[in-house]
Amino acid sequence: MKHNCSSCQFNALAVNTLTQRSLEQLNENHAVVSFSKGDAIIKQGTFSTNVVFLRKGLVKQHLTGPYYEQIVRLVKAPTYLGLPTTFGDKINQYSITAVSDVEICFIDMKVFKELLEKNHQFSYEIILELCRNELESFRRCANRTQKQSRGNIAGFLVELADKIFEKDEFTLPLNQVEIGNLIDASRESVSRVLTEFHRDKIILMRGRNIKILNKNSLELISKNG
């Protein structure tokens, strides 16, 4: 399925810098595919053949290390997925799986490279996005290793509210085992901390449904680790 790139409401900022001719070129060399929750979009170890743009939905980025699979981060649309592995190596270095129903735009890699070469502002915006993602990775790495479970879970809930769902009431997109994997904590620790937050009236929790009652407390717990 194809969409008109010039009128797409899900475009990244970089695409908005392209000329009409470049937009037409992009329009002729992409396909939009829908994925259901749980579907694999990119698989670690397979060839990287297209540029992948997340139009709608939420995905998790994860990789298989020497001993187990590690969830690296949650990624919300709209954004490009896997650009470092697309251009840095022919083989995908991690997997991306749909956490909700998503729409993916697959773009011909050769055409995308031509757009980077011909459109300086487009290239600049792509570089900015890559830089922001790298800085965010550094922050996550420091938090994961230096904060305790209570601080990391508080930070995770604040991030879901502020960046992912943009509201204080939401459904956890990951189960407790996955949350523990993301922040390097056991499922038991995740369950205990969430129960404590509920008991202390910081959050209201019903199953995986969360309502933040005291965001200031969550932010303070996250800050202090």
Task: Provide a concise account of the structure shown.
This protein has 225 residues and is an alpha+beta fold. It is built from eight helices and eleven strands.
Secondary-structure topology with pairs:
Blueprint: H1 20-27, E1 30-35, E2 40-42, E3 50-56, E4 58-64, E5 69-76, E6 79-81, H2 83-88, E7 95-98, E8 102-108, H3 109-118, H4 120-146, H5 149-164, E9 169-171, H6 176-183, H7 187-199, E10 203-206, E11 209-212, H8 215-224
Describe, in plain words, how this protein is organized in 3D:
This protein is 44% helix and 25% strand. Strands 1-8-3-6 form a 4-stranded antiparallel sheet. The mean pLDDT is 90. The chain has helices at residues 20-27, 83-88, 109-118, 120-146, 149-164, 176-183, 187-199, 215-224, and strands spanning 30-35, 40-42, 50-56, 58-64, 69-76, 79-81, 95-98, 102-108, 169-171, 203-206, 209-212. With 225 residues, it is α+β, with helices and mostly antiparallel strands.
Search tags:
single chain, 225 residues, alpha+beta, Jelly Rolls, Arc Repressor Mutant, subunit A, 2 domains, 4-stranded antiparallel sheet, 8 helices, 11 strands, elongated
Measured between the Cα atoms of the first and last residue, the distance is 46 Å
Shape, please?
Answer: elongated
* Second CATH tier, the architecture of the largest domain: Sandwich
Strand order of the largest sheet: 1-8-3-6
Domains counted in the coordinates: how many?
A: 2
Tell me the total number of β-strands.
11
Oligomerization: single chain
- What is Rg? 19 Å
Taking pLDDT < 50 over at least 5 consecutive residues as the criterion, the unreliable ranges are none
Helix fraction, binned, reads: 40-55%
As a percent range, the share of strand residues is 15-25%
How many helical elements?
8
In the CATH scheme, the class of the largest domain would be Mainly Beta
Q: Mean of residue pLDDT? A: 90
Question: Which structural class matches the secondary elements?
Answer: alpha+beta
Series of secondary-structure elements, N-terminal to C-terminal: HEEEEEEHEEHHHEHHEEH
CATH topology of the largest domain: Jelly Rolls
CATH homologous superfamily identity of the largest domain: Jelly Rolls
User: Main beta sheet, described?
Assistant: 4 strands, antiparallel
